[in-house]
Amino acid sequence: MHLAGEIILLIGAIFVFLGALGLLRMPDVYNRIQVGTKAVTLGSIGIIIGVALINPLWWSKLLVILGFILLTSPVSSSAITKAFYRSGIAPWRETEKNKNQDEKEASL
Amino acid sequence: MKKNSSPYLLTFFACWLLWLLLTASFATDELLSGFLISLVISLITAPKMNILNGLNFHWAFLIGLVRYLVYFFYALIKANLDLAKRVLSKDMKINPRMVEIETTMQSDLGKLFLANSITLTPGTLTVDVNENRLLVHWIDCPENTDLDAITHTIVSKFENYLKGFVR
Amino acid sequence: MTTLTIIALGFIAVAALFTLYRLLFGPSNADRIISADALSLITAVFLLFLALIFDSVLYLDIALVYSILSFVGIIALARVIETKTNNSKNLGED
Fold it and tell me: How far apart are the first and last CA of chain C?
């Protein structure tokens, strides 16, 4: 139980690390949000489950934290992306090109 | 369940459940104070909890919820493995694009769940929700393929599972 | 504390450093905001580790409140950005 908990903890930490790496490597804001939200969220879920396995008495509080993170992390990233998009931050060059193409196709 | 009393009951039990989970004890005074506080909160806030109308109670409510959660975690893990591969590869193979998709979810709660699911699953991020259209940022949109068909596959699976417990 | 926990903590620390880099040198303010978002989640996760290390349940409450506060902060920031752009657009149209 203890060892399984620690292994899941480590996997979660690796996903958080990958999320941060993606935040560093991705070319524009929108892709960074994608990587940041997804990987860091799954990483924190893994860490919460790991802590719950190591210390089973804490499960109820950890369950509340898990539910809260699952519900709010996508909402906050969605809200901030919407704000960026409305304020006219252009997506990465290739995205922009494709979008213009789409608009042309739609108008035709 | 009666139409007018259900929001009160729902908020009350949600508050009390949260209280029980946070205190993690079954002492009588804890239970009693939690009961009183959630009673007051539910009396004040229930008339404004319109979002709870989206919940669709029927005989298979819990089964629908569990099936959705299982599929959701499966999709989340798949998404992250895909993402890890993409982050670690030398030349990140990305082709980001904004696409619009239509949803058949009717309630706000259904749209919230759908948008959250889309955000946490392979390569997609919900940007905006308008009536029944979702604006989605897609990190690796395939070229030269029928966009409608693919967007359909993104949404329809989740919608199938979500319809088990929300409108 | 076992070796595995220490390795996991190391990964978290490096992740925090990466997000901190984006926070300090991010090319635009948008990058700074999203890295602050990610960093707040990483901090909440770090508080879970502290709960394990000191074997105290109090840190879980701190983690919960921390994540609630960061969520509210991000939503407020998003609102500010949106209203700002709406106002400037209206001014431009007038």
Answer: 64
Query: Can you tell me the distance from the alpha carbon of B72 to that of B80, in angstroms, rounded to the nearest whole number?
Result: 12
Nearest CA to A36 among B112, C15, C63? C15
DSSP at A92 = P
| DSSP H/E element including A80 | helix A59-86
Query: Which tens digit of pLDDT belongs to each residue from A12-25?
Result: 999 999 888 888 88
Span A51-83, pLDDT tens digits: 999 988 888 889 999 999 988 888 888 888 888
pLDDT at C62: 92
**Quick one: B72 and B128 in the same domain?**
yes
Residue B101: enclosing H or E segment and its boundaries?
strand B97-102
Cβ <8 Å between A82 and B128: yes
- Residue B94: which domain range? 61-162
CB of A34 closer than 8 Å to CB of A95: no
Q: Is residue B56 part of a domain?
A: no
> In this structure, how many other beta carbons lie within 10 angstroms of the beta carbon of residue B142?
11
pLDDT of B138 > 60? The answer is yes
Segment (H or E) for B136: strand B133-138
Choose among A17, A29, A89: nearest Cβ to C15: A17
Query: In chain A, which residues have their Cβ closer than 8 Å to the Cβ of C5?
Result: 6, 9
Alpha-carbon distance of B145 to B148, in angstroms, equals 9
Distance from the C80 Cα atom to the nearest Cα atom in chain A, whole angstroms: 9
Report chain A's terminal Cα–Cα distance, integer Å: 62
Residues B37 and B89 in one domain: no
B31 inside domain: yes
Find chains touching chain A: ≥3 CB pairs under 8 Å.
B, C
Tokens 């569990």, residue located: B66
Q: Residue A49 is encoded by which pair of tokens?
A: 């489950």
Q: How many domains does chain C have?
A: 1
8 A C-beta contact, residue B28 and residue B47: no
Residue pair C74/A80 in contact (Cβ under 8 Å)? The answer is: yes
